[in-house]
Amino acid sequence: MKRETRIVSKICIWLLMVTIAVGCLILPVHAAETEVTIDLDYEYTEAVFYVTWENYEQAGTVTLTSPSGKVYSKDKTPDQVYESNGEAIVNVGKGEEGTWTVVVSGDNMGTVDVTVGELPNSLVISKFAVTQNTDGSVTADYKITDSPDEIYVEIFADTDSEGFDGTCVYSEYMDKKGTVSFDLDSLSSGEYHFYIRVSVDGIYQRAYSDGFVSYQNPNDSQKVDGVKGGTYNDGYYISWNAAEDEAYTVLVWDEAHNLIKEEAVGATDAYYGDYAEDASKVYLAVVRANESCMYDLITADSAVKVSADVAFDTDSDMTKNSFINATVTLDTNSTFDAYLGEQKILEGEKESGMYRVNLEDGDNTVSFVVTDGTGNAAEFSKDIYVDTVPPQLSVSEDINGKVVTESSIYLNGYTEAGAVLTLNGEPVELTQNYFNKKITLSGGENTITLIAEDAVGNQSVYSATVTYESGKTVKRIFEYIALGGLFLVLLFLYIVVFVKGRKRRKQS
Predict the structure, then answer these.
(1) Among 36, 107, 137, 438, which residue's CB has the most CB atoms within a 10 Å radius?
(2) Measured between alpha carbons, how far apart are the two ends of the chain, in Å?
(3) How many Cα neighbours within 13 Å face the side chain of 45?
């Protein structure tokens, strides 16, 4: 009965199109390719081109080109072209006014006939809704108006809600209003949108349903272990326990559960710096690559922020200290890990407080990653350069302990690049890191302190004491020495004379 109905319907549609055709061209041909042009005098609302050829047992292909250059063919627009032996139907929808070109390819087709007319029924999809049942199956309710009583119904599962490029999960000749249920066993676990396609002899309409279905196929492999994720600063992340020699794929859906990212990942985590386009909320999952796999769905909402803070004890990016202190403030159920570079130095800490991190000379990156009870995370990091080595400082001549008679003395030498040099608190000019400083002396002892200080405050110190004795002072010293010497000579002579006199007196 259904087959007879389809045949009658097809004949009626063909007769109607022939009746309302605005153009008709019949050509006797016996070539491999035939080109036919046909003019539309006005713009059609729902235009359908019907192409037939004399030798109906012969297969042929049809390419239709609009006045603006849009091409319709089985390759380019498969859902809009129906081809069979002896005929082809092309549903272009809105038909432009102007000259259309039809190219029919095939051998020994005989006479080619091209007609165009309005779609006799608009096939309005007034209702299409899907619901997921507790057993994982899906129920679809639909209603088609301006339609024959019997239509061909196809339902497709798609990974997003656009493009009409999904997988057919149900097909059958149905009434124009009804309810159908079907399983999703042929699909892998995923987030699916559904659209319906209703057709009558190649003429069709399509529409997506609202909402989506989250489906986990029980025949798929088990979920990846240890999956967690959520927001991460201004972006989002997902992590998992990776098994040796296994590859993984990260899936990301937008807020409407349209698949927006599918990425192979050779690691144990994946981080994304920001949300795609205007998205403010995404859903993530990780599955094993090259196999169907169930998954946990992770939510990342940009409006959700981790309630925590990490304050470092210095704002500078350089220090001479071999450590840095960080004050961590945690919310309930939050934990944190700490890293020095790539090395994890603290894990799963739950207490707020001050934590000391030992640093190494050179560049250091200190990071604290706080994770709340739902998996959202925030990273607090600081890059800091450590320099504990005093700057190089050398003098050409050590002047410590010198006694001079001139009122000045020169001190020269070298210090490392970037160091600031001071002499007794006053800056010393450097020329390519060399210095030559004239020092004015006061009478007596002079204390000289030369300090080289680098950018973080490390110091190298050179100290010296120089005694300045003027010429007058030296002359007076010499006079004192001469008088002292004369006195010693006289004393010696006196002693000699006195001793000899006593000896003579004793002898006499």
Answers:
(1) 36
(2) 182
(3) 5
CATH number at residue 114: 2.60.120.380
Q: Are residues 135 and 102 in the same domain?
A: no
Quick one: pLDDT at residue 116?
85
Neighbours of 240 (CB within 10 A): 23
Whether 488 is in a domain gets the answer no
Does 112 lie in the same domain as 29?
A: yes
Please indicate, yes or no, if residue 489 is contained in any of the structural domains. Answer: no
The answer to whether residue 54 is domain-embedded is yes
The rounded distance, in Å, linking the Cα atoms of 322 and 462 is 25
Q: How far is residue 249's CA from residue 261's CA, in Å, rounded to a whole number?
A: 10
31-47 residue pLDDT tens: 478 899 999 888 888 78
Between 243 and 498, name the one with better pLDDT. 243
According to DSSP H, which parts of 328-465 are helical?
Answer: none
Tokens of 73: 């063919």
> What is the model's pLDDT at position 19?
40
Strand boundaries in 212-342, DSSP class E: 213-215, 228-232, 235-239, 248-253, 259-265, 269-272, 281-288, 298-301, 309-312, 318-319, 323-329, 335-340
Question: Last residue of some domain: 190, 215, 240?
Answer: 215
Q: Do 15 and 30 fall into the same domain?
A: yes
Measured at the CA of 148, the angle between CA 169 and CA 179, to 5 degrees, comes to 40
Residue 142 belongs to some domain of the structure: yes
Same domain assignment for residues 236 and 290: yes
Q: Are residues 102 and 6 in the same domain?
A: yes
Element (H, E) at 461: strand 459-468
What's the CA gap between 19 and 11, in Å, rounded?
12
Residue range 349-361: mean pLDDT, rounded: 96
pLDDT in tens, 169-202: 999 999 999 999 999 999 999 999 999 999 887 6
For residue 206, give the nearest of 316, 121, 125 by alpha carbon.
125
Neighbours of 189 (CB within 10 A): 21
By DSSP bridging, strand 318-319 and strand 377-386 are: parallel
CA angle, corner 202, sides to 201 and 207, nearest 5?
Answer: 115
Q: How many domains does the chain have?
A: 5
Radius of gyration of the chain from Cα atoms?
Answer: 48
- Ramachandran bin of 226, using left for φ above 0, alpha for ψ from -120 to 50, beta for the remaining angles: left
Q: Specify the DSSP element, H or E, that contains 357.
A: strand 353-358
Write down which residue in 215, 236, 254 finishes a domain: 215
Of residues 193 and 21, the one with the higher pLDDT is 193
Distance CA 140, CA 194 (A): 9
Q: Are residues 32 and 62 in the same domain?
A: yes
Strands (E), 280-332: 281-288, 298-301, 309-312, 318-319, 323-329
Q: pLDDT grade, residue 11 (50/70/90)?
A: very low
CB 249 within 8 A of CB 265: yes
Same domain as 343, residue 277? no
Across the range 219-224, mean pLDDT stands at 95
What is the residue range of 255's domain? 228-301
State the amino acid at position 261 in one-letter form: K
CATH value at residue 360: 2.60.40.10
d(Cα 120, Cα 20) in Å, to the nearest integer? 10
